[in-house]
Design goal:
This protein is an alpha/beta fold. Helix content is about 35%, strand content about 15%. It has one domain: NAD(P)-binding Rossmann-like Domain (Rossmann fold), CATH 3.40.50.720.
Length: about 240
């Protein structure tokens, strides 16, 4: 019997926003098949119904198309980096690493998954991640902002090219409480300073981003493509008095 469940591929689903997304999709009323492309399964090993595939964003062929299911209803690319340094201290290797993980990894995975996404008909959805730093100038963000800016441009181009069969959207969070961001929130003083920089006086919660991912994957967002959606506590658009 043909499996009628929706099938989603989540890259980087073993930590932070990716893990929150996996938990949210796994708890949804309508059962779905979740395939996680990860370097190390980590906590995913203990989640019933979640499948894992080995994935390394920094290699030329991180995942073979043959390893993927015949049909994919959605793809979410979560791998990212936070390496904040003054521009004068950024080496070519730093730019290359940010580029490989944030941009080229997404390109390579999308290339492998595209045939399976096309088989989902007009309901397939791709969700990529940018950063508030791609929109507003932030000190010490030159490398990551450049890579995330490329992600946004890629998404708009693919949204135009792949419509109407596949929707492509981007979420652009500000600082979010994840293991990746832990060094930036490692003391009460750092955490409070981060909250005060946001008009809503809060930092991002992975569950809020996961809810947005679920929305973009689902039928409620079928008229939405080519968008960069800021989930950043108002940081990119507001300047309170």
């Amino acid at each position: 019997m043909e499996d009628s469940r929706k099938t989603y591929l989540i890259a980087g689903g073993n930590s932070g926003i990716g893990l929150a997304t996996v938990h949210r999709l796994a708890a949804a009323p309508d059962p779905c098949r979740i395939i996680c492309a990860v370097r190390r399964p980590g906590p995913l090993e203990f989640l019933r119904g979640v499948e894992c595939l080995p994935f390394d964003a920094t290699v030329a062929e991180p995942l073979s198309a043959a390893a993927l299911p015949d049909r994919l209803d959605g793809l979410v690319y979560c791998p990212g980096t936070i390496e904040l340094r003054p521009f004068s201290r950024l080496r070519d290797e730093d730019f290359q690493r940010d580029w490989e993980i944030n941009f080229l990894g997404a390109v390579r995975l999308l290339r492998a998954a595209l045939p399976a996404l096309k088989k989902a008909g007009s309901g397939a959805s791709v969700v990529l991640f940018s950063s508030v730093a791609a929109k507003i100038g932030l000190p010490f963000h030159a490398s990551i902002a450049a890579a995330k800016g490329a992600v946004e441009a890629l998404a708009r181009s693919l949204a135009a090219e792949l419509a109407p069969a596949i929707r492509v959207n981007v979420l652009a969070p500000s600082l979010t409480d994840t293991p990746l961001a832990a060094p930036l929130l490692s003391t009460p003083e750092k955490a409070e300073a981060a909250r005060q920089r946001h008009p809503l006086r809060a930092i991002g919660d992975p569950n809020d981003l996961a809810a947005a991912v679920e929305f973009l994957l689902g039928a409620e967002s079928v008229f939405l493509t080519g968008q960069v959606i800021a989930i950043d506590g108002g940081l990119s658009t507001l300047k309170p008095l």
